[in-house]
Write a structure and sequence with these properties.
Blueprint (H helix, E strand, L loop, with lengths): L5 E7 L3 H12 L4 E4 L8 H4 L3 E2 L13 H22 L10 E5 L2 H16 L5 E4 H7 L9 E5 L3 E2 L2 H14 L3 E3 L2 E9 L4 E8 L5 E11 L5 H5 L2 E2 L11 E11 L7 E3 L4 E4 L4 E5 L14 H14 L7 E12 L6 E4 L5 E5 L5 H18 L21 H4 L1
Parallel strand pairs: 1-2, 1-11, 2-8, 4-14, 9-12, 11-19
Antiparallel strand pairs: 3-7, 4-6, 5-6, 9-10, 10-11, 13-16, 13-17, 14-15, 15-16, 18-19
Helix pairs in contact: 1-6, 1-9, 3-6, 3-9
Length: about 400
C-alpha cells in the first residue's frame, strides 16, 4: 500500500464557513482538503438572506459579537474582490445600505436607542422623519412613524457567493471530497497527524485522510463529529451547538425596493434580477425539522405585505428552510478545540455569511501562530466549560 498523503489541514463541513476557511488557508500556502457529507453550500448557507451589518434590535442583543461583526464587515470588500477574481463569478455584493422603519411609538423608541448606541460606538446612521421615507423608498406606506438609515450595511447573494467560493477553492487547489461523511477520528502520535475516517454516502465504503490540523465547521452537526474524535488529552466536551430552524421566502417580480428594509419582525431585500427575499423565522424548538410550513409562509407574507401591499402580487418562487447552528449564548465558537491540532468554528447562528471573512482570517492566524489571537478570545471553548489544550501532555 502506498504511503498516504498528509494534508496540512482537513476541514470538515462545506458551508460558507468551511469554504471561506479553505479558501483563506490555501491562499496562504496550506495544503487543504475539504470534506462535505453532501455537496458544498447546500445547508443553512444556501438559505441565508445575506443581509450584512452591525445594527441589531433589540439594542445590545449582539453586543458580545459586535467587534467580530465589525471586523468582518470591514474585511468584506477585499474578501469579495478576491473571491470574485479567483472564482470568476459575481457574488451579488451591494452597498445600498439598510432602512429600518418604525410602525409604532415603541418601535420608534427602539430606533432612537439603536441610533444613539451606534453613535456611541463611532458608527454612522441617520434618523429619518416620516415625510422623508417616501423619497428614499416610495413603495413604503405613509403610516410609518420614522426610520433609521444605515448606509454602511451591505448585502450579498449567498448562493452566488457560495458558487464563487466553490470555484475559487478549486483554483487554489483545495482537495474537495463531496458526499463523504466524517465518522470518526484519532490522533496518530507517530505520524504527528489526525486520521479522519470517512464513509462514502452512496457506497458506504470507508476511507480515511490524514492531516496535521483538523478544522470542524459542520454547523449544528459539529458535536456529533467531535464526539467521535479521540486525541491525546481525553474526550472533547460538547459545545452544546444545535439547530435553530429558519424559514425564508423568495419571491419574484418587478423591482419594488432598492435598499434592505427592516422592521422588528421582518427583513426585505431585492436582488437586481428581481428576486425579493422575505426573511425570516426563528424556531429554536423545532429541532432538526426541515418542513416548510404554511403557517410560516403566511406569517412572512403578512408581515411583508403590511409594509408593501404589492408584495402579494409577486410570484412565490421558493420557500426555503435551513438549520442555523447556535450555542446557548448565541455567540460563535471559534478556535482550538481541546485537542492538539483540532480546531472548531461553529455557532454562528444567523451571522454565518457576515462572519465568514473574519472567522477565516483569524483562524488562519491562529493556525500560523499556534494560539488563538486576541480577537478570538471571547469566542473560545473556555466560556462553555471546555479547558484549554494541555500543551505539556501534547509535547
Amino acid at each position: 500500500m502506498s504511503e498516504q498523503r498528509i494534508w496540512d489541514v482537513a476541514i470538515i463541513g462545506g458551508g460558507v464557513i468551511g469554504l471561506t476557511c479553505a479558501f483563506e488557508l490555501a491562499r496562504r500556502g496550506r495544503k487543504v482538503t475539504l470534506i462535505e457529507r453532501a455537496q458544498p453550500g447546500r445547508q443553512a448557507s444556501r438559505v441565508a438572506a445575506g443581509l450584512l451589518g452591525t445594527a441589531t434590535l433589540p439594542v445590545g442583543e449582539d453586543d458580545a459579537i459586535f467587534p467580530l461583526k465589525l471586523d468582518s464587515l470591514r474585511r468584506y470588500p477585499q474578501f469579495v474582490a478576491k473571491v470574485e477574481s479567483i472564482g470568476r463569478r459575481s457574488s451579488g455584493y451591494r452597498t445600498d445600505g439598510t432602512l429600518w422603519v418604525a410602525r409604532s411609538a415603541d418601535e420608534d423608541a427602539q430606533l432612537e436607542a439603536l441610533h444613539e448606541e451606534r453613535l456611541r460606538r463611532g458608527r454612522r446612521s441617520q434618523r429619518v422623519e416620516a415625510g422623508e421615507i417616501f423619497n428614499i423608498e416610495p413603495e413604503l406606506p405613509g403610516s410609518l412613524l420614522s426610520g433609521l438609515l444605515v448606509d454602511e450595511d451591505v448585502q450579498i447573494d449567498p448562493r452566488r457567493l457560495l458558487a464563487a467560493l466553490e470555484r475559487g477553492i478549486r483554483y487554489v487547489r483545495v482537495g474537495l471530497q463531496s458526499d463523504r461523511a466524517a465518522v470518526g477520528g484519532w490522533y496518530d502520535e507517530a505520524a504527528g497527524a489526525w486520521n479522519v475516517r470517512l464513509a462514502d454516502e452512496d457506497s458506504g465504503e470507508d476511507d480515511s485522510v490524514q492531516a496535521r490540523d483538523v478544522l470542524i465547521t459542520a454547523g449544528p452537526w459539529c458535536d456529533e463529529i467531535v464526539a467521535s474524535a479521540h486525541g491525546e488529552t481525553g474526550p472533547l466536551a460538547s459545545t452544546g451547538v444545535g439547530p435553530v430552524k429558519g424559514q425564508l421566502l423568495r419571491l419574484r417580480g418587478p423591482r419594488i425596493i432598492d435598499r434592505v428594509i427592516r422592521t422588528t419582525n421582518v427583513s426585505l431585500a431585492q436582488r437586481r434580477d428581481g428576486e425579493l427575499i422575505v426573511a425570516s423565522t426563528k424556531e429554536p424548538e423545532a429541532g432538526w425539522d426541515l418542513t416548510a410550513t404554511d403557517e410560516a409562509r403566511e406569517a412572512l407574507l403578512d408581515r411583508a405585505a403590511e409594509l408593501i401591499p404589492r408584495i402579494r402580487e409577486l410570484e412565490l418562487e421558493e420557500h426555503s428552510v435551513g438549520l442555523r447552528p447556535a450555542v446557548a449564548d448565541h455567540a460563535p465558537v471559534i478556535g482550538p478545540a481541546g485537542q492538539p491540532g483540532l480546531w472548531i468554528a461553529t455557532g454562528h447562528f444567523q451571522h454565518g455569511i457576515l462572519l465568514a471573512p473574519a472567522t477565516a482570517h483569524w483562524l488562519a492566524e491562529a493556525m500560523d501562530s499556534g494560539e488563538a489571537p486576541q480577537m478570538l478570545e471571547p469566542y473560545g471553548l473556555e466560556r462553555l466549560g471546555q479547558p484549554r489544550v494541555n500543551t505539556e501532555a501534547a509535547s
